[in-house]
Specification:
The protein is mainly alpha-helical. Helix content is about 70%, strand content about 5%.
Length: about 325
């Protein structure tokens, strides 16, 4: 019964439906280049539907059968379209979810990037602050270096001045040293001259040791007569002549102590005068006096008699 009602419903479709279907077929034909496989299937179904409609017009029975078949085919198509749409919607939802997740991830990344950028900016600010402090320190160090250079230059200048002063002082010291050395040499020369003068002025004496040694040696010589001669106006020569005379007399030598004026001898010191260098008494006296440190060289005067023997006491050498 339901089937007949359906058939009657389709038979009652106004002619406008047929016109619309024809227009639809025409539109589908016009857009066939952009049809999907599903649209293509729809187009075929539509054509079949139109044919069925035509057949229904021609034959009610055939139309009923075709209408039933078309109804079923239309339901299948609608289900396919619905399933395809649902699949596309699900795919779109999935893609949208993925896109939303990507956007969320991108937003998270952007947030993290902003945080990192903020941290980087903070670090950069700290670095800039440290750089500014470093620049200040460098400027301070450069200033200190310049000050140190100036102080070093001033110190070098003072050192050069000090060296110049030291060189001058050394020159003055050298001059003073030379002067001191010269004065010291002059003083030494003066002291030596004074000693020599004192030595010359000091009267000659026969020491106790010389006297004892001379007496011992004279006693080993043949005793003889000897005159001791000394110049006038020389107290030193006279006193020394008296000392010698005393020793000779104690050794049992005879003779006189004579001051001779004018003094015929131009000599300093002592001399033994005889007429020959073979006079043994003179030779023994000479050796004895020499051995005790009293130099008395011999003086040979041939004009003297063989028994003449003189000990001449000149000025102090």
């Amino acid at each position: 019964m339901r089937l007949y009602l359906l058939i009657a419903k389709y038979i009652a479709i106004p002619p406008i439906v047929v016109i619309l279907m024809i227009k639809t077929i025409y539109a589908m034909q016009t857009n066939q280049n952009t049809l999907t496989p599903i649209d293509e299937a729809a187009k075929i179904q539509t054509r079949a539907f139109i044919i069925s409609v035509i057949v229904i017009i021609l034959s009610a029975i055939a139309t009923s059968i075709v209408a039933v078949w078309l109804f079923r085919a239309s339901n299948s198509y609608q289900d396919a379209v619905k399933q395809d749409a649902d699949a596309k919607i699900a795919l779109a939802d999935t893609e949208a979810a993925k896109a939303n997740e990507g956007v969320a991830n991108a937003n998270l990344a952007i947030t993290e990037s902003k945080e990192e950028t903020a941290k980087a900016n903070a670090e950069a600010a700290k670095a800039n602050e440290g750089l500014a402090k470093s620049d200040e320190k460098i400027a301070g160090l450069n200033l200190e270096a310049e000050t140190a250079k100036k102080e070093r230059a001033e110190a070098d200048k003072q050192i050069a001045t000090a060296k110049t002063d030291a060189a001058k002082a050394n020159n003055e010291t050298a001059k003073l040293s030379i002067t001191v050395e010269q004065e010291a040499r002059k003083r030494a020369e003066a002291e030596l001259a004074l000693l020599e003068l004192k030595e010359r002025l000091r009267p000659r004496v026969i020491t106790p040791d010389q006297r004892a040694q001379l007496l011992l040696k004279l006693k080993q010589c043949p005793v003889g007569k000897i005159d001791i001669l000394y110049p006038p106006n020389s107290l030193e020569a006279e006193n020394f002549a008296k000392q010698l005379s005393s020793v000779l007399n104690e050794a049992n030598w005879t003779g006189e102590l004579l001051m001779t004026a004018p003094f015929p001898y131009n000599l300093n010191g002592l001399a033994i005068e005889t007429n020959s260098n073979e006079n043994l008494t003179a030779m023994c006296l000479h050796r004895a006096m020499w051995e005790v440190g009293l130099e008395a060289p011999g003086k040979i005067t041939p004009e003297l008699s063989s028994d003449s023997l003189y000990l001449i006491v000149g000025g102090k050498p």
